[in-house]
Design brief:
Rossmann fold; 7 strands; seven-stranded mixed sheet; alpha/beta; about 325 residues; 2 domains
Length: about 325
Protein backbone atom coordinates (compact mmCIF):
# COMPACT_ATOMS: atom_id res chain seq x y z
CA UNK A 1 0.00 0.00 0.00
CA UNK A 2 1.05 3.63 -0.48
CA UNK A 3 2.34 5.20 2.74
CA UNK A 4 -0.22 7.69 4.11
CA UNK A 5 0.60 11.39 4.25
CA UNK A 6 2.06 12.41 7.61
CA UNK A 7 1.72 15.86 9.13
CA UNK A 8 5.52 16.05 9.31
CA UNK A 9 5.83 15.64 5.53
CA UNK A 10 6.46 19.31 4.83
CA UNK A 11 9.09 21.00 2.69
CA UNK A 12 10.30 24.58 2.75
CA UNK A 13 8.78 26.63 -0.10
CA UNK A 14 12.19 28.32 -0.48
CA UNK A 15 13.76 24.94 -1.11
CA UNK A 16 11.22 24.02 -3.78
CA UNK A 17 11.55 27.42 -5.46
CA UNK A 18 15.34 27.29 -5.42
CA UNK A 19 15.53 23.93 -7.13
CA UNK A 20 12.71 24.75 -9.54
CA UNK A 21 14.57 27.90 -10.64
CA UNK A 22 17.76 25.89 -11.00
CA UNK A 23 16.20 23.26 -13.26
CA UNK A 24 14.32 25.90 -15.28
CA UNK A 25 17.71 27.23 -16.40
CA UNK A 26 18.04 24.11 -18.55
CA UNK A 27 20.96 22.43 -16.76
CA UNK A 28 20.83 18.64 -16.92
CA UNK A 29 22.14 17.77 -13.46
CA UNK A 30 23.44 19.26 -10.22
CA UNK A 31 27.13 19.35 -11.23
CA UNK A 32 26.64 21.46 -14.34
CA UNK A 33 29.80 23.43 -13.64
CA UNK A 34 31.95 20.29 -13.84
CA UNK A 35 30.29 18.39 -16.72
CA UNK A 36 29.22 20.13 -19.93
CA UNK A 37 26.78 17.39 -20.89
CA UNK A 38 25.71 14.25 -19.09
CA UNK A 39 27.94 12.45 -16.63
CA UNK A 40 30.60 10.30 -18.25
CA UNK A 41 33.58 8.20 -17.16
CA UNK A 42 33.16 6.06 -14.04
CA UNK A 43 29.77 7.60 -13.26
CA UNK A 44 28.33 6.68 -16.66
CA UNK A 45 29.95 3.22 -16.45
CA UNK A 46 28.17 2.55 -13.17
CA UNK A 47 24.83 3.36 -14.77
CA UNK A 48 25.48 1.39 -17.96
CA UNK A 49 26.27 -1.62 -15.80
CA UNK A 50 23.12 -1.04 -13.73
CA UNK A 51 20.94 -0.89 -16.86
CA UNK A 52 22.46 -3.88 -18.69
CA UNK A 53 19.91 -6.42 -17.45
CA UNK A 54 16.79 -4.32 -18.12
CA UNK A 55 14.22 -5.70 -20.54
CA UNK A 56 11.15 -4.38 -22.35
CA UNK A 57 8.68 -5.32 -19.60
CA UNK A 58 10.66 -3.72 -16.79
CA UNK A 59 9.74 -0.52 -14.97
CA UNK A 60 12.28 1.93 -13.58
CA UNK A 61 11.82 4.69 -10.99
CA UNK A 62 14.27 7.60 -10.89
CA UNK A 63 14.11 9.39 -7.52
CA UNK A 64 15.01 13.10 -7.42
CA UNK A 65 15.51 13.08 -11.17
CA UNK A 66 16.26 16.78 -11.73
CA UNK A 67 16.20 17.40 -15.45
CA UNK A 68 16.44 13.71 -16.23
CA UNK A 69 20.12 12.87 -16.69
CA UNK A 70 19.43 9.18 -15.97
CA UNK A 71 16.26 8.89 -18.09
CA UNK A 72 18.32 10.28 -21.00
CA UNK A 73 20.74 7.36 -20.64
CA UNK A 74 17.86 4.91 -20.27
CA UNK A 75 16.29 6.19 -23.48
CA UNK A 76 19.46 5.72 -25.51
CA UNK A 77 20.81 9.28 -25.44
CA UNK A 78 24.31 10.38 -24.35
CA UNK A 79 25.82 6.99 -25.11
CA UNK A 80 23.13 4.97 -23.38
CA UNK A 81 21.25 2.01 -24.83
CA UNK A 82 17.46 2.14 -25.03
CA UNK A 83 16.23 -1.03 -23.35
CA UNK A 84 12.60 -0.27 -24.13
CA UNK A 85 11.54 -0.22 -20.47
CA UNK A 86 9.13 2.32 -18.99
CA UNK A 87 10.43 5.06 -16.71
CA UNK A 88 8.85 7.15 -13.97
CA UNK A 89 10.90 10.11 -12.75
CA UNK A 90 9.97 12.06 -9.62
CA UNK A 91 11.33 15.27 -8.16
CA UNK A 92 10.30 17.76 -5.51
CA UNK A 93 10.91 20.62 -7.97
CA UNK A 94 8.95 21.56 -11.09
CA UNK A 95 10.44 19.69 -14.04
CA UNK A 96 10.31 20.51 -17.74
CA UNK A 97 13.43 19.11 -19.44
CA UNK A 98 14.02 20.75 -22.79
CA UNK A 99 15.51 17.55 -24.23
CA UNK A 100 12.13 15.80 -24.38
CA UNK A 101 11.81 17.12 -27.94
CA UNK A 102 14.64 14.74 -28.91
CA UNK A 103 12.44 11.72 -28.21
CA UNK A 104 10.09 10.01 -30.63
CA UNK A 105 6.44 9.41 -29.73
CA UNK A 106 7.04 5.88 -28.46
CA UNK A 107 9.84 7.03 -26.14
CA UNK A 108 7.77 9.92 -24.83
CA UNK A 109 5.00 7.47 -24.01
CA UNK A 110 7.40 5.39 -21.89
CA UNK A 111 8.63 8.36 -19.82
CA UNK A 112 6.41 9.87 -17.12
CA UNK A 113 7.61 12.89 -15.14
CA UNK A 114 6.12 13.63 -11.72
CA UNK A 115 6.88 17.10 -10.34
CA UNK A 116 6.31 18.11 -6.73
CA UNK A 117 6.73 14.56 -5.42
CA UNK A 118 8.65 13.76 -2.25
CA UNK A 119 10.98 10.76 -2.09
CA UNK A 120 9.49 10.10 1.35
CA UNK A 121 5.97 9.78 -0.08
CA UNK A 122 6.00 7.97 -3.40
CA UNK A 123 2.64 7.91 -5.23
CA UNK A 124 3.05 4.31 -6.40
CA UNK A 125 1.66 1.01 -5.22
CA UNK A 126 3.74 -1.68 -3.54
CA UNK A 127 5.95 -3.86 -5.76
CA UNK A 128 5.64 -1.66 -8.86
CA UNK A 129 9.25 -1.31 -10.07
CA UNK A 130 12.08 -3.58 -11.10
CA UNK A 131 14.79 -0.97 -10.56
CA UNK A 132 14.90 2.15 -8.37
CA UNK A 133 17.71 4.61 -9.09
CA UNK A 134 18.87 7.99 -7.89
CA UNK A 135 21.87 10.15 -8.72
CA UNK A 136 22.88 12.78 -6.19
CA UNK A 137 19.30 13.12 -5.06
CA UNK A 138 17.78 10.68 -2.60
CA UNK A 139 20.16 11.76 0.17
CA UNK A 140 18.48 15.20 0.23
CA UNK A 141 15.34 13.54 1.56
CA UNK A 142 14.73 12.03 4.98
CA UNK A 143 16.93 9.13 3.97
CA UNK A 144 15.56 6.50 6.34
CA UNK A 145 12.01 7.13 5.10
CA UNK A 146 13.04 7.47 1.44
CA UNK A 147 14.91 4.15 1.47
CA UNK A 148 11.93 2.46 3.10
CA UNK A 149 9.71 3.87 0.35
CA UNK A 150 12.14 2.66 -2.33
CA UNK A 151 12.01 -0.82 -0.81
CA UNK A 152 8.21 -0.72 -0.68
CA UNK A 153 7.76 0.05 -4.38
CA UNK A 154 10.35 -2.51 -5.52
CA UNK A 155 9.25 -5.94 -6.69
CA UNK A 156 10.46 -9.15 -5.05
CA UNK A 157 13.50 -9.42 -7.32
CA UNK A 158 14.00 -5.68 -7.66
CA UNK A 159 17.27 -3.77 -7.48
CA UNK A 160 18.35 -0.45 -5.95
CA UNK A 161 21.20 1.55 -7.48
CA UNK A 162 22.33 4.91 -6.10
CA UNK A 163 25.07 7.48 -6.63
CA UNK A 164 25.25 9.59 -3.47
CA UNK A 165 27.31 12.51 -2.22
CA UNK A 166 30.39 11.55 -0.21
CA UNK A 167 31.34 13.90 2.64
CA UNK A 168 34.96 13.99 1.40
CA UNK A 169 34.15 14.35 -2.30
CA UNK A 170 35.31 17.24 -4.46
CA UNK A 171 31.82 18.77 -5.02
CA UNK A 172 31.15 18.72 -1.27
CA UNK A 173 34.49 20.27 -0.38
CA UNK A 174 33.99 22.99 -2.97
CA UNK A 175 30.42 23.47 -1.78
CA UNK A 176 31.57 24.13 1.79
CA UNK A 177 33.99 26.81 0.57
CA UNK A 178 31.37 28.34 -1.72
CA UNK A 179 28.87 28.53 1.12
CA UNK A 180 31.25 30.59 3.25
CA UNK A 181 32.10 32.90 0.36
CA UNK A 182 28.46 33.46 -0.62
CA UNK A 183 27.52 34.16 3.00
CA UNK A 184 30.04 37.02 2.93
CA UNK A 185 28.72 38.30 -0.41
CA UNK A 186 25.19 38.40 1.03
CA UNK A 187 26.20 39.91 4.37
CA UNK A 188 25.35 43.40 5.63
CA UNK A 189 28.73 44.73 4.43
CA UNK A 190 29.02 42.35 1.51
CA UNK A 191 29.23 42.97 -2.21
CA UNK A 192 25.52 43.16 -2.95
CA UNK A 193 24.70 45.65 -0.19
CA UNK A 194 27.68 47.84 -1.11
CA UNK A 195 26.79 47.63 -4.80
CA UNK A 196 23.22 48.66 -4.02
CA UNK A 197 24.50 51.75 -2.22
CA UNK A 198 26.60 52.66 -5.25
CA UNK A 199 23.89 52.31 -7.88
CA UNK A 200 22.27 55.77 -7.40
CA UNK A 201 25.64 57.48 -7.75
CA UNK A 202 26.64 55.44 -10.79
CA UNK A 203 23.34 56.25 -12.47
CA UNK A 204 23.83 59.92 -11.60
CA UNK A 205 27.32 59.89 -13.11
CA UNK A 206 25.86 58.98 -16.51
CA UNK A 207 25.11 62.67 -17.22
CA UNK A 208 27.18 65.85 -17.04
CA UNK A 209 24.69 67.45 -14.62
CA UNK A 210 24.82 64.35 -12.45
CA UNK A 211 28.58 64.43 -12.27
CA UNK A 212 28.41 68.03 -11.08
CA UNK A 213 26.02 66.98 -8.30
CA UNK A 214 28.43 64.24 -7.25
CA UNK A 215 31.34 66.64 -6.78
CA UNK A 216 32.07 66.81 -3.05
CA UNK A 217 29.00 64.68 -2.17
CA UNK A 218 29.91 63.24 1.25
CA UNK A 219 27.36 60.38 1.06
CA UNK A 220 28.58 59.32 -2.38
CA UNK A 221 32.20 59.43 -1.20
CA UNK A 222 31.34 57.39 1.88
CA UNK A 223 29.52 54.75 -0.16
CA UNK A 224 32.43 54.59 -2.59
CA UNK A 225 34.89 54.08 0.29
CA UNK A 226 32.71 51.27 1.68
CA UNK A 227 32.55 49.64 -1.76
CA UNK A 228 36.33 49.86 -2.16
CA UNK A 229 36.83 48.32 1.29
CA UNK A 230 34.50 45.51 0.24
CA UNK A 231 36.64 44.93 -2.87
CA UNK A 232 39.74 44.61 -0.70
CA UNK A 233 37.99 41.99 1.44
CA UNK A 234 37.04 40.09 -1.70
CA UNK A 235 40.66 40.23 -2.89
CA UNK A 236 41.78 38.68 0.41
CA UNK A 237 39.05 36.02 0.20
CA UNK A 238 40.11 35.16 -3.36
CA UNK A 239 43.69 34.69 -2.23
CA UNK A 240 42.57 32.40 0.56
CA UNK A 241 40.16 30.35 -1.58
CA UNK A 242 42.59 29.73 -4.43
CA UNK A 243 41.01 27.50 -7.09
CA UNK A 244 37.68 27.62 -5.27
CA UNK A 245 37.27 31.39 -5.73
CA UNK A 246 35.30 31.17 -8.99
CA UNK A 247 32.09 32.30 -7.30
CA UNK A 248 33.76 35.56 -6.27
CA UNK A 249 35.08 36.26 -9.77
CA UNK A 250 31.62 35.62 -11.21
CA UNK A 251 29.88 37.83 -8.64
CA UNK A 252 32.26 40.71 -9.33
CA UNK A 253 31.76 40.43 -13.08
CA UNK A 254 27.99 40.33 -12.68
CA UNK A 255 27.95 43.39 -10.42
CA UNK A 256 30.01 45.30 -12.98
CA UNK A 257 27.37 44.43 -15.56
CA UNK A 258 24.71 45.83 -13.21
CA UNK A 259 26.76 49.03 -12.88
CA UNK A 260 26.89 49.33 -16.67
CA UNK A 261 23.13 48.83 -16.73
CA UNK A 262 22.68 51.72 -14.30
CA UNK A 263 24.46 54.05 -16.72
CA UNK A 264 22.76 52.86 -19.88
CA UNK A 265 19.21 52.01 -18.72
CA UNK A 266 18.83 53.88 -15.45
CA UNK A 267 18.59 53.25 -11.73
CA UNK A 268 15.28 51.38 -11.67
CA UNK A 269 16.38 48.79 -14.20
CA UNK A 270 19.70 48.33 -12.39
CA UNK A 271 18.00 47.87 -9.02
CA UNK A 272 15.77 45.16 -10.48
CA UNK A 273 18.82 43.44 -11.93
CA UNK A 274 20.74 43.60 -8.65
CA UNK A 275 17.78 42.26 -6.70
CA UNK A 276 17.47 39.31 -9.08
CA UNK A 277 21.21 38.67 -8.86
CA UNK A 278 21.18 38.72 -5.08
CA UNK A 279 18.21 36.32 -5.03
CA UNK A 280 20.04 33.91 -7.34
CA UNK A 281 22.98 33.82 -4.91
CA UNK A 282 20.67 33.31 -1.95
CA UNK A 283 19.14 30.32 -3.74
CA UNK A 284 22.58 29.00 -4.66
CA UNK A 285 23.61 29.27 -1.01
CA UNK A 286 20.60 27.18 0.00
CA UNK A 287 21.55 24.48 -2.49
CA UNK A 288 25.23 24.25 -1.51
CA UNK A 289 24.32 24.21 2.18
CA UNK A 290 22.04 21.27 1.45
CA UNK A 291 24.79 19.55 -0.49
CA UNK A 292 27.22 19.79 2.42
CA UNK A 293 24.62 18.91 5.05
CA UNK A 294 23.37 15.78 3.28
CA UNK A 295 26.67 14.29 2.11
CA UNK A 296 27.46 10.99 3.80
CA UNK A 297 30.68 10.07 5.60
CA UNK A 298 31.70 6.47 6.25
CA UNK A 299 29.73 6.23 9.50
CA UNK A 300 26.54 7.49 7.86
CA UNK A 301 27.00 5.11 4.93
CA UNK A 302 27.45 2.19 7.34
CA UNK A 303 24.08 3.11 8.83
CA UNK A 304 22.55 3.16 5.34
CA UNK A 305 23.93 -0.32 4.73
CA UNK A 306 22.40 -1.57 8.01
CA UNK A 307 19.04 -0.11 7.07
CA UNK A 308 19.11 -1.73 3.64
CA UNK A 309 19.89 -5.07 5.29
CA UNK A 310 16.90 -4.55 7.56
CA UNK A 311 14.68 -3.77 4.58
CA UNK A 312 15.34 -7.18 3.09
CA UNK A 313 18.06 -6.33 0.58
CA UNK A 314 20.90 -8.72 -0.11
CA UNK A 315 24.28 -8.17 -1.78
CA UNK A 316 24.38 -4.69 -0.27
CA UNK A 317 27.53 -2.69 -1.00
CA UNK A 318 28.77 0.89 -0.97
CA UNK A 319 32.04 1.80 -2.66
CA UNK A 320 33.73 5.15 -3.26
CA UNK A 321 33.21 6.57 -6.74
CA UNK A 322 36.27 8.17 -8.31
CA UNK A 323 36.25 10.27 -11.47
CA UNK A 324 39.63 11.13 -13.02
CA UNK A 325 41.38 10.51 -9.67
CA UNK A 326 38.90 12.72 -7.79
CA UNK A 327 36.50 11.32 -5.20
CA UNK A 328 32.99 12.11 -6.47
CA UNK A 329 30.62 10.09 -4.30
CA UNK A 330 29.38 6.68 -3.23
CA UNK A 331 28.13 3.87 -5.47
CA UNK A 332 25.42 1.88 -3.68
CA UNK A 333 24.14 -1.49 -4.89
CA UNK A 334 21.40 -3.47 -3.19
CA UNK A 335 19.32 -6.39 -4.53
CA UNK A 336 16.14 -8.00 -3.24
CA UNK A 337 15.41 -11.66 -3.29
Amino acid sequence: MIRPIAESDTVSPDRCASWSHYWSSGVLHSCAGSFRGNYDGAIASFWHESFDTLELQHRVLDVASGNGALPRLLLGLDGGSDRGCSIDAIDLAALAPGWLTELDDAQNARLRLHSGVMAERLPFADATFDLVISQYGIEYADLAVALSEAARVLRAQGRLRLVMHHADAVPVRKGAVEARLIEDLLGSSGLFVCAGSMLPWIALAATADGRVQLHGNAKANGDRAAFNACQLRIDAAMAGAGDDADVLHEARDQVQQIFALAQTEGLQRANIGLQALRQSYAEHLLRVRELVAHALDSAHMAEVMRQLDGLGFSLVSATPLNYEAHLMGWMVRADRG
